[in-house]
Amino acid sequence: MRHYMGRLYQALKRASFANGWFYFNKEELADLETILSFLQYAARGVSLNNLVFRKPTMVYRSNASEFGIGGYNIVSGITWRLELPVDCRLRSSLNSLEFWGCVISIWMDHYHKVIEPGFCLLSQTDSTSAMGWLK
Q1: Structural domain harbouring 113
Q2: Which of 63, 112, 120, 133 is buried deepest, with most CB atoms within 10 A?
Q3: What pLDDT is recorded for position 48?
Q4: Domain contains 52
């Protein structure tokens, strides 16, 4: 927030020299819009998970290729893989397979009752799209 307020403080100083009348430039207007979006977000409530660093209790890694998907939990040691049937290969985007790899990795621990309430889960993949979809 401080970063975006910097130009607005400069505009306020400019206004004091101009008897209170001034116009925002394009960058200042963009900063003002960003600040307003932050305030609207904060008014809805901010998750502490976005403010406080937590060490993950479970760390998952998964990956996908046109031949299949697989993953494992570094902590519990549970691993899995799924080979795609030949007639199903190249029928889905690699990003969607990466996403399902992340979901299945977590689901495997849930199925084996390894996850307890309050655990912090970190699922890692090499697809930024899949990570965004998980959020």
Answers
A1: 58-134
A2: 63
A3: 64
A4: no
